[in-house]
TrEMBL record:
Molecular function terms, GO-annotated: phosphatidylinositol-3,5-bisphosphate 3-phosphatase activity; phosphatidylinositol-3-phosphate phosphatase activity; protein phosphatase binding
Span of domain Myotubularin phosphatase: 1-106
Descriptive protein name: Myotubularin phosphatase domain-containing protein
GO cellular component: cytoplasm; membrane
SUPFAM superfamilies: (Phosphotyrosine protein) phosphatases II (SSF52799)
Family: Belongs to the protein-tyrosine phosphatase family. Non-receptor class myotubularin subfamily.
Species annotation: Rotaria sordida
InterPro entries for this protein: Myotubularin, Myotubularin-like_Pase_dom, Prot-tyrosine_phosphatase-like
One of the GO BP terms on file: phosphatidylinositol dephosphorylation
Length: 106
């Protein structure tokens, strides 16, 4: 975008079974940051100009493993949205849509 904002989506950080770092994930995060570096931005949260920091929003609950390994994502901040079990939330949304559709047909 012309203001330097970028929205990307990923399912999970690749921490692995033995809680090892993922160089691939770290490289992807750095590539996103590098793609935005030439754009003048203002961090609306802290009022910093040219902060070039990446805000990672994790929709699930706070997870110590993710939080610990996110420290290896340079120039990044992680915020947890604390949504309950995300798959249950998605299922509930589908059920509400089905009820709404059924009501519309009456």
């Amino acid at each position: 975008h012309t203001n330097g904002a970028v929205i990307t989506r990923a399912s999970q950080p690749e921490i692995g079974w033995l809680l090892r770092r993922s160089k691939e994930d770290e490289s992807m995060i750095q590539a996103i940051i590098n793609a935005c570096k030439d754009t003048l931005t203002t961090n609306s949260i802290h009022g910093e100009t040219n902060s070039n920091r990446l805000l990672i929003l994790h929709l699930g609950t706070r997870d110590a493993a993710i939080e610990d390994y996110a420290k290896y994502y340079a120039d990044s901040d992680v915020e947890f949205m604390n949504l309950p079990h995300i798959h249950a939330t998605s299922r509930s949304t589908r059920m509400l849509r089905a009820i709404d559709a059924a009501q519309c047909r009456k």
